[in-house]
Amino acid sequence: MSDIAIRVENLTKKFFLGERVGIKTFREALQDLVTAPFRVWRKNGQGDGQDKVDTEREIWALKGVSFEVKHGEVLGIIGPNGAGKSTLLKILSRITEPTGGYAEIRGRVGSLLEVGTGFHPELTGRENVYLNGAILGMSKAEIRRKFDDIVSFAGVEKFIDTPVKRYSSGMQVRLAFAVAAHLDPEILIIDEVLAVGDAEFQKRCLGKMNEVARSGRTVLFVSHNMAAVEALCERGILLRGGRVVLDGPADLAVQNHLDANYPSQGEFDLSHAQRPSHLKPLIKKLRLADANHRSTGVHRFGNDLHIELELETTETINHAHFNVRILTLLGQRVVTWSSLYSSPRGLEIKPASVFRLTLEELRLAPGQYRLSVYVSSEGRALDRVANVPLEVADAPEMGQVHRVNYEKALYIPKCRWELARASPRG
Q1: What does the alpha-carbon distance between residue 119 and residue 132 come to, in Å, rounded to a whole number?
Q2: Which residues lie closer than 8 Å to 122 by C-beta, 6 or more apart?
Q3: DSSP state, residue 291
Q4: Number of other CB atoms surrounding residue 387 within 10 Å
Q5: What is the number of other CB atoms lying within 10 angstroms of the CB of residue 267?
Q6: pTM to 2 decimals?
Q7: Is 158's pLDDT higher than 80?
Q8: Helices (H), 334-421
Q9: Does 25 reside within a domain?
Q10: Which residue, of 43, 149, 224, 228, has the fewest CB within 10 Å?
């Protein structure tokens, strides 16, 4: 028996701008029938003109993608927006047909791609659980044994007999993930839908995916959360412009992706940075500066760190709050600074505002970190950017003896040792 779970060979996918995917209405079909002879005449009469128009409307989402995934392998697929990640997963989940090439899938597939995918909106949550299990080839008894775990994980006990169309997007995602992860698929395909859930749900999802991975099942994971990719995946594929630009260890793929999107000079243009789709860019630029206000990507232990945020808005925003977090490469939160502590009533953001956060005597253990910034107003999220690289280096005066402590702790507070008292010698 082959140890290959997924084989992708020279996969391509072409879309046309303005193309509507789906079932045509009777009126649209009738219009096509009536105008078909004229379209043929125009094409023949104009020579290459129609071909030129079609070429201008072409969008190649995938261009010759090839790779293999072994049984039990956990693969992270990353890349900027528009790289072709979601299109690839839709082809592997048999939702979309490729334009060229082929993909072989060996095993039962459970997938979670978009909010509501795989659910019939008119059916209840209970009915959809059984429907998805039946599609995976499971018996009613098998589904029944796992049903309580699915409902408990999703936290929808009160609504399980309510039609799914009445669920919020968060409830749909929670139930869809619980179904995909608990119904024992041999191949689990997860797209970046976890952003819809809250922090606690995301943590449980990542824990469940880790459990699935350890059980020997194959996992394909698309995410903009680089820390989660590094923590879960041994291997990573970096897509850019519909092509595979790197296939190797997950940490190498992540570093290549971050290097391409965030140069290390300490100044970052975040206008087109990856952020949840429901948020509009508010943070235009971010600058990391040293104690002398010079931009740099490397900061010394014990020195001041300045974080400057340049914001772009067309109208004044009142009662705004900033939340800055520093995390390890594995996603462990080290420290958080919130403007709520110093300005409980919030700050006023005017057009072309620049805010500066000064961290006095940075006490992070030397190493690589990631910076995340959240902006909100009156409980409503306005913008969020993540994965901004921050490097902390040894201070010149720190000796080798201090580095032993770096392996034991991430934050080293400033302290002073002194002799408080001593017993007199007898």
Answers
A1: 8
A2: 163, 164, 165
A3: T
A4: 20
A5: 16
A6: 0.61
A7: yes
A8: 339-342, 400-406
A9: no
A10: 149
> Does 399 score more than 60 pLDDT?
no
- The residues pairing with 246 across neighbouring beta strands, listed in sequence order, are 238
Q: pLDDT-based confidence at 43, cuts 50/70/90?
A: very low
* Helix (H) or strand (E) segment spanning residue 4: strand 4-16
Q: Which helix (H) or strand (E) holds 252?
A: helix 250-261
Q: What is the DSSP letter of 94?
A: T
Instruction: Tell me how far apart the alpha carbons of residues 254 and 389 are, in angstroms, rounded to a whole number.
Output: 11
What is the span of the domain harbouring residue 316?
267-396+409-421
| Domain assignment present for 102 | yes
Contacts of 340 (CB under 8 A, 6+ apart): 321, 323
pLDDT, mean over the chain: 81
Beta bridge partners of 267: 287
The confidence score (pLDDT) of residue 170 equals 80
Structural contact between residues 182 and 112, judged by C-beta atoms closer than 8 angstroms: no
Contacts of residue 117, Cβ cutoff 8 Å, sequence gap at least 6: 95, 111, 176
CA–CA distance from 19 to each of 14, 49, 55, 82, 189 (Å)? 11, 19, 13, 17, 26
Domain edge (last residue) among 261, 294, 316: 261
Give backbone dihedrals phi and psi of 118, rounded to 5 degrees, phi first: 90, -5
**Which CA distances in Å does 378 have to 34, 102, 197, 383?**
55, 50, 20, 13
Amino acid at 79: G
197/287 same-domain check: no
How far is the C-alpha of 238 from the C-alpha of 247, rounded, in Å? 7
Q: Please answer whether residues 118 and 111 qualify as being in contact, where contact means their C-beta atoms are separated by less than 8 angstroms.
A: yes
User: Which has the closest alpha carbon to 339: 301, 385, 302, 307?
Assistant: 307
DSSP code for 163: B
Q: Is residue 42 part of a domain?
A: no
Quote the DSSP letter at residue 351: T
Please tell me whether residue 63 adopts helix, strand or coil conformation.
strand
Would the pLDDT of 41 be above 50?
no
In a shared domain, residues 272 and 254: no
